Automatic annotation (TrEMBL):
The lineage of its organism: Bacteria, Pseudomonadati, Pseudomonadota, Alphaproteobacteria, Rhodospirillales. The chain crosses the membrane at residues 291-315, 335-355, 375-395, 416-447, 453-474, 494-516. This is DUF255 domain-containing protein. It comes from Magnetospirillum aberrantis SpK. InterPro entries: Cyt_c_assmbl_TM_dom, DsbD_gamma, DsbDN, Thioredoxin-like_sf. Residues 1-18 form the signal peptide. SUPFAM superfamilies: Thioredoxin-like. One of its GO terms (cellular component) is membrane.
Length: 642
């Protein structure tokens, strides 16, 4: 069956064609999955006895190629250099990989753009070099397609200068894992814990600066396959315990005492180390578990979400829900607020279930991405307008009785189901917002397995529901509210206007989705934004410029707050319009695999997201969700330093 699939993929592979070369580069070989070429760091070799080359891949969104150890499936690029002249001993270096999950399989490789550095010996220094690379690689998305390319590059013998690609090659050389010293990383110990089918590898690493989202890759593949690791952080994030279970049935010999190579990757930082695991004791992990720490972060993020701008669309639901309890009995208050809290938590668990399913299908996952779907926007607009009409007294829901007044809190004769659905509806409208700690928690969850996703989303729901739970715990708080009366008719009309305004806002987002209006990148702005182009970032940095990247969407309320309060006003706007800064805007209003992959490269799965690049920060520095002028200006200054 696998052979038939491979044959079908091969037959389906598009015919490659070459695109014009630039000095120091071969022609591009272009396919539907992307393009590849050969680069040299020098325009000519002079008397050098070695040459720095690079295999430059630019992949279409959604497509990936493989690392030297590909994981559960696939194979790495294979190169035949035998057709080269005056060249020998080429050695390929492998930048730190990323982990991908496709159809439940763990794979290691690269998406977007990557250069594989190649260092080769010049047999006769002072003589021309002809480089021939017969390349065979596998590109995968929903299907895998074997690709071939015939790359040729001639380098003269005269004196030369660094080519236009020297910086790009050097940037990826810097991403090749070393001993970790320049990143302040080191492996303290490697242990084999357990026996038989339950054995797992435990690595303890230390860092001068706190870890963010460390990952671990284990070689050789012939020894065993490993599940995605679980990470425990302690000592303020400066110590990481990374544990990976052996996939059942794949262990070929005892793990303890087996020579290994472990690669630890944490964003742009990485290290590679040879290790021989020693027997370890189960349960001897130092510090509290990472999941427990992240649950607390998620709980705090959910609480803060109550204070974010996204509370405005649901303010009418919350306020009227509270006012309707004025003068009510303690038991009624407690039951009603518990029902609303349950609606919030259950809706977060439903979002977690969707995220798990989407991730298992190999699709991009993220916070609030349901607002990229026109059908979802249409349903939300219809519900908002129906609820607003109800608040204005244009109709009342009568049947069925069990569902009477099952909408927001402005409907009379509330049922527990109505309060439950009000909580769920509030959750859906809150998801366009991000908040401090929320992005960290969501990124942690979506980079891991189903159990972590459900746990983190449940904690987020508890945090958002905490005000309801507080009133349910102390129902006497509701007795301090005014008793319902005729004055609530006016309040309902005002709240109906708020819901209608929210519906109109979603209507503008829907217009973008169906092509009736421009997206976020086309708005008139105080900053001269240019469209996001990840390949242009390195070129701008090589020219000594600073690049500010803003990932935004029309449905992202926090993005609009950042724009109005920080990025498009005052000193920040003036700096972004300066000649030494390139301001890039990536519009995620509609689904975009390239933007999703870019976010994932920073361990992020939601927006707003901002990053700053420059000579002082060539790999980019991610900023916080809620921007401040001081933070942005400091990042721009730091990135601009050489």
């Amino acid at each position: 069956m696998k052979k038939l699939l491979a044959l079908a993929a091969l037959l389906a592979a598009p015919l490659a064609h070459a695109a014009a070369a630039e000095p120091g580069a071969s022609d591009w070989t272009v396919t539907d999955t992307g393009r590849v070429r050969l680069l040299a760091a020098q325009t000519a070799l002079g008397t050098k006895d070695s040459v720095q080359l690079g295999l430059h891949f630019q992949l279409q969104p959604g497509w990936k190629i493989y690392w030297r150890t590909p994981g559960d499936a696939g194979y790495p690029p294979k190169i035949d250099w035998s057709g080269s002249a005056n060249l020998s001993d080429p050695v390929v270096s492998w930048p730190a990989p990323k982990r991908f999950t496709l159809a439940g399989l763990q794979n290691h490789g690269y998406a977007g753009e990557v250069i594989l550095p190649v260092l080769a010996r010049v047999e006769k220094p002072g003589q021309p070099v002809s480089v021939s690379a017969q390349l065979d690689y596998l590109a995968c998305a929903q299907i895998c397609v074997p690709m071939q390319a015939d790359l040729r590059l001639d380098l003269p013998a005269g004196s030369g200068q660094p080519s236009a690609f020297a910086h790009d090659i050097g940037r990826f050389v810097a991403l090749v894992p070393g001993d970790g010293a320049r990143h302040g990383l080191k492996v303290e110990r490697v242990e084999a814990v357990g026996e038989g089918e339950g054995v797992h590898l435990r690595l303890t690493a230390a860092a001068d600066d706190p870890f963010d989202h460390p990952d671990m890759f284990v070689e050789p593949a012939e020894l065993a396959s490993f599940e995605a690791p679980v990470v425990t952080l302690s000592q303020g994030g400066r110590r990481a315990v990374i544990e990976a279970e052996v996939v059942k049935g794949t262990l070929q010999r005892p793990l303890a005492g087996a020579p290994l190579v472990v690669t630890v990757v944490d964003g742009p930082r990485s290290l590679e180390a040879a290790a021989v695991p020693v027997p370890g004791v189960a349960g001897s992990v130092e510090g509290g578990p990472a999941l427990l720490s992240m649950l607390l972060v998620a709980l705090l993020g959910g609480v803060i979400l109550n204070l974010m701008p996204c509370v405005l669309p649901v303010l009418s639901i919350k306020v009227l829900g509270a006012l309707s309890h004025g003068g009510a009995g303690r038991g009624h208050v407690r039951a009603s607020f518990l029902a609303s809290a349950a609606g919030i938590v259950v809706s977060f668990l439903a979002l977690a279930a969707v995220a798990v399913a989407v991730k298992a299908a190999g699709q991009a996952v993220g916070w609030g991405i349901q607002f990229q779907q026109p059908w979802f926007l249409g349903v939300m607009i219809a519900l908002l307008l129906a609820f607003a009409a109800n608040l204005w007294g244009l109709y009342e829901i009568r049947l069925p009785t069990a569902l009477m007044n099952a909408g927001p809190s402005g409907v009379a004769h509330h049922t527990l189901l109505g309060h439950f659905l009000s909580g769920a509806f509030a959750t859906l409208l809150a998801t366009p917002c991000s908040a401090p700690f929320l992005g960290t928690a969501v990124g942690f969850a979506l980079a891991r397995g189903p159990s972590e996703i459900f746990a983190i989303f449940a904690a987020l729901g508890l945090g958002l529901a905490l005000p309801y739970l507080a009133v349910a715990t102390w129902p006497g708080l509701a007795s301090r509210l005014p008793k319902p009366g005729a004055w609530m008719v006016t309040v309902k009309k005002v709240m109906g206007v708020a819901l209608t305004a929210t519906a109109l806002w979603l209507g503008t987002v829907l217009a973008v989705q169906v092509g009736m209006a421009g997206g976020a990148a086309s708005d008139k702005a105080a900053v001269a934004w240019v469209p996001f182009d990840q390949t242009a970032i390195s070129r701008a940095v090589a020219e000594g410029k600073v690049v500010f990247v803003d990932v935004t969407a029309d449905w992202c309320i926090t993005c609009k707050v950042n724009k109005a309060a920080v990025t498009e006003r005052g000193a920040v706007a003036a700096r972004l319009n300066g000649g030494d800064v390139v301001a890039m805007k990536a519009d995620w209003t509609k689904p975009d695999d390239g933007v999703a992959a870019y976010l994932a490269s920073f361990g992020r799965y939601g927006i707003p997201f901002n990053a700053v690049y420059g000579p002082g920060a060539p790999d980019g520095v991610a900023l916080s969700e809620l921007l401040t002028e001081a933070e942005v200006m400091a990042a721009l200054d730091k990135a601009g330093k050489r």
